[in-house]
Design goal:
- The protein has 152 residues and is mainly α.
- 51% of the residues lie in helices and 7% in strands.
- A three-stranded mixed beta sheet has the order 1-3-2, with no helix packed on it.
- Helix 1 (4-21) runs antiparallel to helix 2 (33-51).
- The relative contact order is 0.15.
- Residues 45-53 have low confidence and may be disordered.
């Protein structure tokens, strides 16, 4: 599992990448103060969770993810919320040792509210099940963005 410091570093890298790659004039992504605060809040929480990961129960981890999913579901800080059908948060084992992270949900994911359910999802499932001999529910699958960008 990733420790709190490493998770914090990943979140900081994502924040920098989103800020650098956002193109408000084209309407593809705009990082608001609310989203930046959410990312910073998650980073601080991740540090706390990482420090206590050995003591956390599966229920604690699931509750933390559920609370984060609820917060993300309320987020309307960028224009992506306006065009989404569903927030695509993530699925699988919250205690997984292996996490697959995509860029953003596509059409099928937006309609289903689940990550990797289209053609790419079928391929990923084949890799997990046939290639790695794991069950999809034993890994965690999510996207960096939780809402479908315009025109994918």
């Amino acid at each position: 599992m990733i420790d709190g410091d490493a998770f914090q570093d990943v979140l900081e890298d994502v924040r920098i990448l989103v800020e650098r790659e956002a193109h408000p004039a084209r309407g593809t992504l705009r990082l608001s103060g609310e989203v930046a605060a959410l990312i910073e809040g998650v980073g601080g929480a991740a540090e706390d969770v990482g420090a206590a990961a050995g003591d956390a129960t599966a229920e604690d981890v699931e509750a933390g993810l559920a609370a984060l999913e609820e917060a993300v579901g309320r987020c309307a800080g960028c224009g992506l919320a306006e065009g989404r059908t569903h927030v695509v948060f993530g699925e699988g084992s919250p205690r997984a040792d292996l996490v697959f992270v995509g860029e953003a949900p596509g059409f099928n994911e937006d309609k289903a509210g689940k990550p990797f359910v289209g053609a790419a999802g079928r391929l990923l499932t084949d890799i997990i099940v046939k290639g790695m001999k794991l069950r999809r529910r034993d890994v965690y699958i999510c996207n960096v963005l939780k809402c479908r960008p315009p025109n994918n």
